[in-house]
Amino acid sequence: MPDKARGIDPRGPRFAAAITSVLLLIDVFLGLTGASVAAFVLLVAIALLFLWGVVSPRTAPWGALYRAVIQPRLAPPSELEDPRPPRFAQGVGLFVTAIGILLFAVGVPWGVPAAAAAAFVAAFLNAVFGLCLGCQLYLVLQRAGILGRRPASAA
């Protein structure tokens, strides 16, 4: 990370993932019990939250809630993390939920619960075990030179 002072508390994204995983689990349940329109609407709301997390992570609701209510009650984090991988992970969540929305829009009824289930697995792993699949994908793409690093300029 170029500037360690700009790191984020790693507990914030895990808190957001916990709330997101609950919403996604509700969405899977709605999709599997026949409430497909309600599941679709909830998935659109979740996708908008992912979009918010990509566009403006400082103002995203779950992060703001964490910083205002939870973080002041905790000891400072032992280390900070680079904000780019969690932000990329929000983009991955947006992509997965957008696929579910698109599938529903073209008439695939299982698109919403399938996309919500896939996103739930990722959010749950992050919330419970601290394993951020989107962050891991970011690191793989960074090592491959696809993301996060600019090629050295010729002098």
Automatic annotation (TrEMBL):
It comes from the Bacteria. Pfam families: DUF4395. InterPro entries: DUF4395. Residues 8-143 form the DUF4395 domain. The chain crosses the membrane at residues 12-31, 37-55, 92-112, 118-141. Keywords: Membrane, Transmembrane, Transmembrane helix. This is DUF4395 domain-containing protein.
